[in-house]
Amino acid sequence: MSRTLLQDPGLWKEAALIGGQWRTATPHGHSPLINPADGAVLAQLPRCQEAETTEAINAAQAAWGPWRRTPARQRAALLQRWHELITAHREDLATLITLEEGKPLAEARAEVDYANGFVRWFAEEAQRVRGDLIPAGQDSQRLLALRRPVGVCAAITPWNFPAAMVTRKAAPALAAGCTVVVKPASQTPLTALALGELAHRAGLPAGVYNVLTGADTGRIGGVLTRHPAVRKLTFTGSTEVGRLLLRQSADTVKKCSMELGGNAALIVLDDADPDRAVEGILHAKFRNTGQSCIAANRVLVQAPLHDTLARRLAERCRALRVGPGLEPGVQIGPLIDDAAVQRLEALLAEAVAGGATVLAGGRRHALGGRFFEPTVVAGVRPDMQLAREEVFGPVLPLLRFEQDDEAIALANDTEFGLAAYLFSRDAARIWRTAEALETGMVGVNTGLISNEVAPFGGVKQSGLGREGSHLGMAEYLETQYVCWDGLAPAA
């Protein structure tokens, strides 16, 4: 049984967390949780629907009053204790991530550290929320701007980073004095539930952190977006679903933050360091088997470097080890489901039919199932679906360009604007190109850009708001203006 792989079996929860109580069953049955590496059923999770969602919201609303009145220093101490428990249970959390999401264990450990960075950062930020004293136009008045927690927050999180996407939302909400209802992806609930168990052990009061389980995400989301007690909705996922949630949230005018789809371009200028570019491309493309919203979706290489980089990338990709994430040395795990494999096959078939050339990989791996060979494709044109859609898999399209302005135009020719990457050794070209890119984030000479101290988010149809940094705290606060009149004039 998979729970025996954990040092602390108490972190294995097949239950929803509502108002501090573990709910092992609902009238709606259970949803199976599948291990993407072998197709085995890992667990059976209770299916939450409208009634359970309303219960969780009511529990969060009841807990909000006492929680927002809890001194910031005390909230910070509880979050710091949560951080310490996550650190102590790092290996078990990483094992859960690998079992339910499939990523290699080394990457899962790195995700736990990344996720825990948000808990530590926002524990510290809890004590840094400040207002303003505004100079008044009359001596009898004092004008204040206070920062207040927005209220109950609904967090809908994706499957590809099941720990980090929870803490990146829950930690600032809790630090600000909000309560949360988390709906993790139905493919990866175990990590969010384990984090809930550790939050309980840390001393977070009942109802402050709630987790809803099951595959009925549409029914749950419908309640979260329309319930008047939910004052904030935060979502990470596809642009299509983000648009739907925004429409549903409009009737109650919720504060919303959205981290949506991406089509990140990675530009390699002809003066780039080839070694650094190759390493950066591998990090930016193949982390989590390419299943990342900021993965390099298109690699644009200036003509003088194109053939050299194409050859070296193909060689490196052939050497990447594919396999189940719990096996030592594995670098590429399975895709999340069968549909993801079929989608990659369709994108590659369309590109090859249009004249593109597969330099490495290009098919399902010999292991079968949901494993796919790391793939490099040259001769990709901007009009191919492989260059226009979010690939979300270990397939790397290469596009050749001649002039810098051409690369900028290609990179910006998309409705998305989440991230971009740039490799060059010329400071002037770096500044000029980075400032021309229509994205919320730019990595220069690196393929790893995400951390808790920097603002994460996109422009255009890649989202609203920012996560991480001090800006991430602002997403869970409202400004209250106080005009105090009738004071005696100063002597």
TrEMBL record:
CDD domains: ALDH_F5_SSADH_GabD. InterPro entries: Ald_DH/histidinol_DH, Ald_DH_C, Ald_DH_CS_CYS, Ald_DH_CS_GLU, Ald_DH_N, Aldehyde_DH_dom, Aldehyde_DH_Superfamily. PROSITE patterns: ALDEHYDE_DEHYDR_CYS, ALDEHYDE_DEHYDR_GLU. GO terms for biological process: gamma-aminobutyric acid catabolic process. The active site is at E259. The keyword Oxidoreductase applies. It comes from the Bacteria. GO terms for molecular function: succinate-semialdehyde dehydrogenase (NAD+) activity. It holds the Pfam family Aldedh. Keywords: Oxidoreductase. Residues 25-482 form the Aldehyde dehydrogenase domain. Belongs to the aldehyde dehydrogenase family. This is NAD-dependent succinate-semialdehyde dehydrogenase. It comes from Ideonella livida. The lineage of its organism: Bacteria, Pseudomonadati, Pseudomonadota, Betaproteobacteria, Burkholderiales.
